[in-house]
Amino acid sequence: MSSKNKYHIYPDYWLPKWGEMPYLGTVYADDEFEATRRAYDKGFLPVNITFGPKAVRVDQVTRPPLQRHRNYRN
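The chain above was modelled as a monomer; its predicted structure follows.
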């Protein structure tokens, strides 16, 4: 019997100009793949929008994940 890991859910894409990356919620899962699916099941983000959920295992978290952004000239 495996114990579930705790994952924090963040958007997988976020521009710095939008402000601080939002924390969307917490799920418990065996791995990152299952955590992503559980985030959809809980309705943290709808499927097929601009960005999806990024699962970050809690024991690895000291701060939100690095913000990824594309090189736009704004």
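The two ends are 51 Å apart (CA to CA).
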